[in-house]
Write a structure and sequence with these properties.
- Keywords: Kinase, Transferase.
- One of its GO terms (molecular function) is kinase activity.
- It comes from Candidatus Caccovicinus merdipullorum.
- InterPro entries: P-loop_NTPase (IPR027417).
- The structure is a single chain.
- 52% of the residues lie in helices and 11% in strands.
- With 204 residues, the chain is an alpha/beta fold.
- α1 (15-26) packs across α8 (188-202) and α6 packs across α7.
- The protein is globular and about 45 Å long.
- The relative contact order is 0.22.
Length: 204
């Protein structure tokens, strides 16, 4: 069975960077935005639209369950949401079957639960997340501290709703993960080799 690491993360915590660095150190495939790109290819929807859908709570009033029977839906928006979630599930499974991999976000820990992935959750205090966001570049430069804090909170709230709707579990709840990492005031570059060493011991 392939080695699989999934990473859930708060916005601005550095979880995406950690995943990328771990993939380089450990020689594992890395999947993040590539999942969105593949969904867009398979559904003929734009990447921007797919990204918007998977960052927000689905419009359906019941959780998606792959393989479940559905009544015919007359709402084309609902049909599109269903298609995206089903393709995401299928693509993540395909990626995990190809090789050792690290998958960031998108309920990978839940979708791949039968493959027993090593599940990581990355979090940080708000001030640290704000500082990391500002370091990342121009998209946050013109935001006041209040606006940036609101943006971070909004993204995390959407991620929590999405995860909880799709999995039935609480996003960020420590019992749902094998390792929770607090990146407050810590360098992801320095943390990555330590985490990689730990993972190599656990995934032997």
């Amino acid at each position: 069975m392939n080695r699989i690491v999934t990473i859930g993360r708060e916005f601005g915590s550095g979880g995406r960077e950690l995943g990328r660095r771990l993939s380089e150190i450990m020689g594992m495939a890395y999947y993040d935005k590539e999942i969105v790109t593949e969904i867009a290819k398979r559904t003929s929807m734009s990447e921007e639209y797919v990204q918007h859908i998977i960052e927000h709570r689905p419009v359906m009033s019941y959780p998606i369950s792959i393989g479940r029977s559905f009544y015919p839906m007359v709402n084309p928006i609902t049909d599109q949401h269903q298609t995206i979630y089903q393709e995401q599930h299928r693509i993540i499974r395909e990626m995990a079957e190809k090789s050792d991999c690290i998958i960031v976000g998108r309920c990978g820990d839940y979708i791949l639960k039968e493959q027993n992935p090593f599940r990581i959750f990355v979090y940080a205090e708000m001030e640290s997340k704000m500082a990391r966001c500002r370091e990342r570049g121009a998209e946050h430069e013109n935001l006041t501290d209040r606006e940036l804090k609101q943006q971070i909170s909004r993204v995390d709230k959407n991620r929590a709703k999405y995860y909880e709707f799709y999995t039935g579990h609480r996003w960020g709840e420590r019992l749902n993960y094998d390792l929770c990492i607090n990146t407050t005031d810590r360098s992801i570059k320095e943390l990555a080799p330590l985490v990689a060493h730990f993972l190599n011991e656990c995934l032997q």
